[in-house]
User: Fold this.
Amino acid sequence: MPTYAERFAAALVDTAPAPAEPPRSWRPGDPWRHSLDGTWRFHLSDSPAHAPVGAEQPGYDDSAWDEVRVPSHWVLDPQRRYGNPIYTNIVMPIPFDPPYVPDANPTGDYRLRFDLPPAWAGLPRVLLRFDGVESFAMVTLNGAEVGLLRGSRLPTELDVTAHLEPTGNVLHVRVAQWSAQTWVEDQDQWWLPGIFRDVSLVGRPVGGVDDVWLRASYDHATGHGHLDPEVRAGADAWPVTLRVGELGVDVTWASAADVQGLDVGPVTPWSADVPRRYAASVAGAGETVDLQVGFRTVEIRGRDLLVNGRRLRLRGVNRHEYHPDQGRVFDEAAAREGLLTMKRHNVNAVRTSHYPPHPRLLDLCDEIGLWVIDECDLETHAFELHGWEGNPSDHPAWRDALVDRMLRMVERDKAHPCVVLWSLGNESGTGANLAAMATAARRRDPSRPIHYESDYEGAYTDVVSRMYTPLLGMADLAEGRGRAHTRRPAQARRLTDRPMLLCEYAHAMGNGPGALAEYEEAFSTLPGWHGGFVWEWRDHGLRTTTADGTEFFGYGGDFGEVVHDGSFVMDGLVLSDGTCSPGLAELAATGTPVPVTFEPDAVVVTNLHHARDLGRLAFTWTWAVDGEVRGEGVLDVGALPAGASVRLPWPDLGADARTAADSWLTVTAALAVDEPWARAGHVVTRRQHRLDAAGVPLPPEPTGAVHVRDDRVSVGPVELDAATGRVLSVGGAAVSASGVELWRAPTENDSLGAFGSYETGDVDETRGHGAPGAPSSQRWRAAGLDRLVPRTTSARLEGDDYVVVQRLLPAQGRHGACVTYRWRVVDGDAVCLVHVAPVAVRTDTTWPRIGYRLALPTGYADAAWYGSGPGEAYPDSAAASLVGSWRAAVDDLAVGYAVPQETGHRPGLRRLTLTGDGVPRLEVTTYGPHRPGFSVLRHDAYELDRAAHPHELPPSRATHLYLDAFQHGLGTRSCGPDVLPEHQLWPREASFGFRLRVR
Ligand code: IPT
Assistant:
């Protein structure tokens, strides 16, 4: 007879599914659930071989063990007593030797002493339920081995009836971090071992109802709901009664054989827009199950994915389970807040990347209204780096385990109306086991189509799904051309009769993503496409501290990992601390369900909602000239039905609306009433239209003279070094640096893009994981744009102007810029005209920016401006920004990205006022022809470039005012296409001006 340790060691690397109770739906608020969460005894060993001998025996003395909280991950222990988290994306943190794992395998022994609830005496059955344990465990109750846990984010129920005592039960769970399961759980996230979801006892009463599935469909032709119930219950439970009070349903079935489908008459169907549910109950002799039923029907007709007869438009995000302190431990309040934040940003869909979430999350999605792709806990990505050899997706040894994983998800989540597609997993290559998973899921639930991205030829899935496909690749797919990961033209043509979606696109890493507007356009116009899911919802930074106690959000490499993938785990629309990024504002603006467009004879409002009219929105307009409101009013859109468009006459604006310079009409659609996800007044859409055709004002002529005295030049409030034109002071305040700059601190989209084998492997270029060629920042650095130095070729008076001409070139380089500064006095203020022209033009590099920097004293605290705002904007991410009067604290003008990088640019500045204690109040006015935008930052581009984390930035030495005539776009090349050609900044001439007034 093998010992406990030997059995554990063998089971650890066994790929078979673990025997357990048949899976069933998760029940929120189950009165027969008794939580075992709380404080448990815990002991960590460095290997199963060194785990405490006899710990599974009830008499074992665990009094010297530590205490930990269950659920939790031991590596996130608040006192960090038990090792560290590890972040890898594709690569494995253990040797590639599947299904084996190394000796060094952190192993946690958990023990709990518990009593049965007194009322449970005499229950015929009691189950022990684990909702999530990573990655493998053996469970012992009162000395009896009651089961194994495999499938980290899937539930397991074990029948423990025979081993329970009324009091003094001892439960022991030995958990290994690495196991055979690790090979199929290689998702891009932190490796976080432990019992991280709930543990409970589930009582099964006499006459209990074990599982209920009220398949609730909706016939959009008749408006009727239909229930097709399935009741799993023992013989002692019958008769069973189904009641749906609101619908007058009250039927009793004498036996399982009598259960029949029923038409419930007219219902309001469930949709993400109107998440209507009906309370139902199913009562057996000994147990009543309370449910919420949502009626809805998913179907594929040709290339349309329909819900309730209407085509779906998915405006989705990929959502991981993440909490900055607790990792994947579920925090309901935080999860709810996250979903509400999605709704407030016009997101209507979630892909549960890349495993089933905590079951409660799906209740929240049902309630709040979000379409869900529920994804199985499966990823074998690392096998790709070894040519997919032995891939569990195709290896017979894994077949049963993978099918088991799929069915456990389907059974757990089948009752949720929000789930409209089942997903087999992520990035697991292709193979027979995936096909078997699909078959098993279809057999159990024919009502939901199957999704899986890597089934490129559509062999066993129902929708065409791709990731990071460039716009051209999307068009290819839509039109059946054989690229975009489907090389055979016949296959490609075959796919054109199916719905298409991007399960991942727009990699939201750092500053970005760019081109959301172009993706939105493609989703709306290309045949077959139904939208997509941005990668991803939130950064996964884990709160930690430096040696000196400074708090920060750690990413890969911050915890001593041997191999890791750095900041690739920080690619969310929401930052680790919950801050909504400018990328999220852009997604809300480009993905609005209520687009407003302006035509010569009409303002056009379209309702892209799936199932709601616009009766709950209030439409208003504002007309402003040069930042001053001249008129406002209401637009009568009425209860415009979903799918409809209305052409409204233009509001009656004054006669000079089209002649006054800088004249703007802004239309706003805001909630007229409170919704469960936002208060009345919440803005759903805001769109602007420029009414006049006036050009950008050019710099004024001088009205006075500059004064040259010794080595100084006085230009109104500005003092220059006469020899170099460098600004020495403004309004008496010292300026530490000034002049034209072409460098920006590279964004991660500027600097990443060589993504594993995708760069060199045999993937189709139209899929675009990281565009080909060197990333922008490499080309910029090679061209020396990060180290340009000036040589003044002339500095002299020309009439009333002081004119300085310089060449800006890097060490050893010939490529750079020739810059002319023309300083003049206008009404006592300093005006500078800047002209930039490329020198020795190179065709192998873009430029990051063309701007002017003024390093002002540190004291500036507040900014008020008329120009674009409120947030930052770049050429390919500007839909959320509006021309208006804005104000912000200087500290809030930069975004605290996980890796410091370019931030804060707001194009189209007209005027800006900077103020602070002990510094002169500075007013800046800008001129064309290439009117600059601005940023005001505590650190310059060089300092931002050098820091890998915000806390590594040096103390601020200046307030850096950048006035940029041009900025390169953002793109999404960190994982996806580069900046689109029309948003790239190629070396070019630029002319702009600014005026500095100190008052
Ligand atoms: C893709 C993964 O599916 C996702 O989990 C994440 O890793 C993302 O990339 C990058 O952040 S796979 C990648 C090789 C395209």
